């Protein structure tokens, strides 16, 4: 047991040295941190360990990380801000403590809840998936775990298909659970409402509305074709009537001959001679032809 504690503590030495190098903690504070970690390590590796001991250890590490961030933000103009091991080592250590806690107490829901909550807060998506997978394998009758996993899949990852698969799998293990059935129905209704809202925002139409629109379009085209045919028939009839009127008003050949015969005789002497009528002079026609 002592060797295991020493092994875990030796792994924290590089990060503590980095904290001291950046002047975020002095030697006295580093010694106190090492002493507290040693105490917690002995406590969680003992036989009488309880889930509360792991949570207390995690709380200490969280407070340490908060203090590190505050000092870093306050002193970042005077210290080395280049990324180093101390920037992520504490969060990684917290995850390691949670993993050890759930391995020791796999049926303790509070540990699982705090573990998943911490992963969500830090955006550790891969760790969350792995945690939910292990939790559902160990506790397939835990309804809250199934609902939490489906909610994470639907709301955080926007994966409706994955959430539906989780809920359907949960119903295979817990088919008598009324709460699961109600939440499954609620999920489907919520999914439909989101689809309708999305269609409304994007000005999309449903399949039924699309079929109705196509039917209306066909009917409109039929009406237009009928109207066009009626107009064409009316125009043909009007053309026929106008041609009939023209033919009706045109005189016959006999009428033309009769009208020509009834014309009076022309008196050529009325035109005069070239001397008193310039229109009869030849020079006028020559000038016209030269212009043309």
From TrEMBL:
A GO term for molecular function: snoRNA binding
Residue span(s) of domain U3 small nucleolar RNA-associated protein 6 N-terminal: 9-93
Keyword field contains Thylakoid: no
Subcellular location as annotated: Nucleus, Nucleolus
Coiled coil: 204-233
Main location: nucleus
Gene3D superfamilies, alphabetized: Tetratricopeptide repeat domain (1.25.40.10)
UniProtKB keywords: Coiled coil, Nucleus, Repeat, rRNA processing
CC annotations in GO: Pwp2p-containing subcomplex of 90S preribosome; small-subunit processome
BP-aspect Gene Ontology terms: maturation of SSU-rRNA from tricistronic rRNA transcript (SSU-rRNA, 5.8S rRNA, LSU-rRNA)
Family named by the database record: Belongs to the UTP6 family.
Protein name: Unnamed protein product
